[in-house]
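Subject: design request, 101 residues
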């Protein structure tokens, strides 16, 4: 299972010299839940990603990017056409971004 987000959260927590229970308390989740998020056994919700960024003094954009990347990898990781599908999706995202302005 992809877990770049969980690895980054754990890294930031350690840099900030915080225990899991301290972060979990600020996140209003229990310590086992935080442990599962760090290990990649459980997905964080988008609003939790933003809260992690604030608590851990992390980049909101970086954490959201890793969180999204983990989700994409989980969906396509065992597909033979994963890279091709991601290229098609990339073009669609670019197209939609241009038309939003």
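Subject: RE: design request

Done. Sequence follows.
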């Amino acid at each position: 299972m992809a877990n770049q987000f969980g690895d980054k959260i754990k890294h930031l927590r350690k840099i900030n010299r915080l225990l899991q229970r301290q972060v979990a308390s600020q996140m209003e989740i229990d310590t086992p839940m935080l442990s599962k998020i760090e290990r990649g056994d459980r997905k964080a919700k988008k609003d939790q990603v933003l809260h992690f960024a604030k608590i851990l003094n992390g980049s909101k954009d970086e954490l959201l990017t890793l969180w999204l990347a983990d989700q994409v990898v989980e969906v396509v990781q065992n597909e033979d056409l994963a890279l091709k599908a991601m290229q098609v999706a990339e073009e669609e995202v670019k197209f939609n971004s241009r038309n939003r302005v």
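The chain has a mean pLDDT of 93.
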